[in-house]
Amino acid sequence: MLRWILGSREAQSALEKSSVLCIGEEQPQNCFTELQVLKGHFDIVRFLVQIDDFRCASAGDDGLVLVWNTETGEKLLELRGHSQQITAITTFKCRNALTTQTMLITASSDRSLSLWDPDTGNRVQTIADLHSSVKCLLVLERLCLWLSGGEELCVWNQDFQLQCHQPNPSDTGIIALIELPKNCVAAAMDKEIVIYRLTVPADSVLCLTEMQRLSDHRDQIRALINVNDNMFASGSHVGELILWDAIDWNILAYEHILWEESQSASEIRMGSSKPSEMSIQHLCSNGKLILAAVGSGLYVYSVLTKTVLAYRKVAHDSNVLHTMLLSDSELISCSEDGSVRMWEIQDLPLAAEPASAGFFGMLTFGRSSKHSGPPSKKVLDVSNLKMLELIGDLIGHSGAVQMFVSFKENGLVTCSTDHLLILWKNGERQSHLRSLKLFQKLEENGGL
């Protein structure tokens, strides 16, 4: 049974279509049969961040930060202070002698940074009149520091005091930051990854030193993530996936996601496909697998074997914007087409024809030469290739789904260009919980 809790006429139209699509044994099984539309924003909602087990914060182009209870769907707080769109948001654990409190750091196009208390809604700290807007944030909890990246790289302490900075690192600015071992950080800017080291010299003044520039990508880097304690990965606009050693910053594997070998260059140019269909828009990892969103497709890469485990050339009708590995066999993705889809990695049927290596043209080890010619293609051994099977299709948004946050058995929260959030729940689990509450209340009241 589907239980729709509707919030707007636009959402209702899309949700009614979803209910029709989910009926029938041939459709993928979808456990998220109960949903609630959350309204509060009046522009595109681009960001979601989990605060604790039952709260999340949303932010977007209206400059608002809203705090939600993911159990009830209640809007708890409105954090007002930014005059323009939010460009980055993250959680930050502030520690003192007695307690540790989770706070929120936000950056905005109004060239300000703010520290918020999500329990009270108060803006605790703010930094205004920056030289430029901040594009990304990185918290170094072990050092009680945080970094902001944009046209300059800045290091701040938990009291919002500037410790050191690197001005104008590149023309395009920093688009992503990750933490590396030995007090190092990696910053993605244009086609390069720059490694910095944080040190405290004898005069006790924090110092940010550039250690190395990794210039192996041939186009703009679009994604940069940690894989595990020993590796990180980056993805570029032309479909390059590079796996790096996190200690010595050498290339461990290079994977170029190419067009089908049967297509000629002229067919690619004259076709209706968008150039972005090769671009890696998003990467995520659970330490053993890397999931890449490449155009409208999904590609699962094994860190252990350095090979492609499974892929789906067309997983959505438009570009995939965000992904997550729920386990070693289940994953989830969302797209510009307004859908959220759940997938399972399954073995290929025995009767299936041999799968083509498809887009995966080469695999090399060691640093590639930036000035060398195009690498020669090497067909991968696909004997262990698996398939991505659609197991759930969540259709509720009327605009592009920007991202989502999973609360595991407590549900899933999605945000979109339609100004809405949707809280998706497991219908059977919610029905069971309601039955338990009813029986408890009957017992307290002495029965019917």
TrEMBL record:
UniProt keyword annotation of Repeat present: yes
Domain of life the protein comes from: Eukaryota
GO biological process terms, semicolon-separated: regulation of autophagy
InterPro entries hit by this protein: WD40/YVTN_repeat-like_dom_sf, WD40_PAC1, WD40_repeat_CS, WD40_repeat_dom_sf, WD40_rpt, WDR41
Protein name as annotated: WD repeat domain 41
SMART domains, per database record: WD40
PROSITE patterns associated with the record: WD_REPEATS_1, WD_REPEATS_2
GO CC annotations on file: lysosomal membrane
Classification of source organism: Eukaryota, Metazoa, Chordata, Craniata, Vertebrata
UniProt keyword list: Repeat, WD repeat
Repeat positions for WD: 79-126
